[in-house]
Amino acid sequence: MLILVPLVAWRWVLWREHQYRLQLIEKQKQAAVAWSREMEAIRQTRRGFAVGNPFPKLNVVSETFGNVPVYERSKPVLLWFPLWFEGAAAWKPEQWQGWRELLARCPNLHLVGVAVTPSAYASSVRRDLQQLHRALQHPRIGFWMIVSDDWANDDTGERNPFIQKQVMLIDGNGIIRYSGLLRRSMPSEAELRRIEEEYQKLYTLR
Questions:
Q1: How far is CA 105 from CA 50, 176, 197, in A?
Q2: Distance from CA of residue 175 to its chain's centroid?
Q3: Tens-digit pLDDT profile for the chain (206 aa)?
Q4: DSSP strand pairing (110-117 vs 77-81)
Q5: Are 185 and 161 contacting, i.e. CB atoms less than 8 angstroms apart?
Q6: Backbone angles phi, psi at 41, to 5 degrees
Q7: CA dihedral sign, ordered 137, 188, 75, 168
Q8: Pairwise CA distance, residues 80 & 78, whole Å
């Protein structure tokens, strides 16, 4: 009994220290994510992609698939910049149910997936986007392919104005009303609800 009491106490101390380290690591992760998002917000502001600004005209060669009313008035658009190589999840039509449900609840919203690709992969990305667009068969889902070696090969974020896993809501007047970063390429239920709330604000503020 005299041996078991200090042994149990020692194990309890080790367990507490382990829990403390886990909490510390989690706080460090959260701080790193917050810092990263703050830096990205600063970059976005510097490039003119800040909330409240008009969506800038982009002088880049682009190709569209489906309805992409990025510069059309009276049509709210949600731009989405996924990691297209993230397990190829974005290429599977069955993974798009969340987006479909969001569009059903937001009848005027158009979803535009943006793929930034180097010229060497342009033909394969074009083929994949064509196949995905045909498979989805949704009148308010379109794709915008931007072919740019400078942007696609930019690891620093200095030249490419878009952030991977970002969503950007543009209202019917071409003004950026919301910008957020998804945890993964495909949005969670909570993230979809937040986008829907921002969409509803476009009509409650009229």
A1: 26, 21, 11
A2: 18
A3: 555 556 666 676 677 777 778 787 887 777 766 666 665 665 655 566 788 899 888 777 678 898 888 887 788 999 998 876 654 556 678 889 999 999 999 999 999 999 888 888 888 888 888 988 999 989 999 999 999 888 887 766 677 778 888 899 999 889 999 998 888 888 999 999 999 999 999 876 55
A4: parallel
A5: no
A6: -65, -40
A7: negative
A8: 6
- By the 10 Å C-beta count (0-12 exposed, 13-18 middle, 19+ buried), 49 is classed as buried
59: amino acid identity, one letter? N
Other residues' Cβ atoms within 10 Å of the Cβ of residue 52: 8
